[in-house]
Amino acid sequence: MTEYNAQILESDNIWKYVFDALPDLIAILDTNHRVVKINKAMANRLGVSPDAGVGLNCYEVVHHTDSPILECPHSKLLQDGLEHTQEVQEDNLGGYFLVTASPIVNPDGELLGSVHIARDITERRKMEKKLEKALVDKEILMKEIHHRVKNNLMMISSLLNIQSHYINDPDVKDLFTESQNRARSMALLHKELYESGDMKDIELSEYLSTLSKEIMHSYNSRDLNVDLGLDLQKGTIDVDRAIPLGLIATETIINSFKHAFPNGKGKINIKLYKDDDSFVLIISDDGVGFPEDLDFRSQGNMGMMLINGLINQIDGSINMKRENGTQFIIKFNDEEPIDK
Prior knowledge:
Blueprint: H1 2-21, E1 25-30, E2 35-38, H2 40-46, H3 58-63, H4 73-80, E3 84-90, E4 95-105, E5 111-120, H5 122-164, H6 170-195, E6 201-203, H7 204-220, E7 225-232, E8 236-238, H8 239-259, E9 265-275, E10 278-285, H9 302-313, E11 317-321, E12 326-333
Parallel strand pairs: 7-9
Antiparallel strand pairs: 1-2, 1-5, 3-4, 4-5, 6-8, 9-10, 10-12, 11-12
């Protein structure tokens, strides 16, 4: 028995050593919220000796209240016998703690109390708050950048518009109108980003709707009477691909206005829909059609060169059909490529 008692004593000493060596704040509580034992870390944080709080209610010792706090994990454990974890801010302990109450049961399964472990996460919470503030500051900065870029692009568009009134040559006037619409396309995107709460993605259907109406207005104010049909499914796209996509749409619509309607009348239809994990954008007109002997991919005019160059930036594809006019089918993934 002497050897057995020595083993028990040694085990008890090891347990006490480990209990007091752990940096987490540990308390053993009974089913009446009374403190059975606290470790040195808990005692040091409270500024008392390890035996000072024994027999007292834990909420009196820790929280200086006359009843358990609302988020007390020990109270929850007493209700269902399960382990509970709760983040608690406690000024008496000097910060934020992740508190876990684990049940203590006897061999018959009767609940005797809990092991109450509080891990100091104050520094982590401070860092999280700093990161949250940095994120807010970044969003404010991004909104201001988008706002200023939008204003600058709109100013460029307005200057081009003013200058075009002094030009009589229709071909040169067209160049100014095209450049004006390109600037307006990018300005509109920055406007959408500025007005939305999301600095990364935009609602594609709203953007394309507004963009196409802006372009139609700029051309229909002249000697054209072209109707616009829209069938746009909702969906978001990241800003890195929205810019080139907006320019692709702009160039395609401009191409229809310039070449499809020699009699000054017609209709442009724009359709956007999801096809599995891709978006499909179809821009078509009922005009005279793209010349049979020309390949749009090898055309030397600026609009077609821009379209073919920009399609690679959105990791997409473009095809053309000559059916009752001209139809451009643009397909691209609905998620940003991983390697971008």
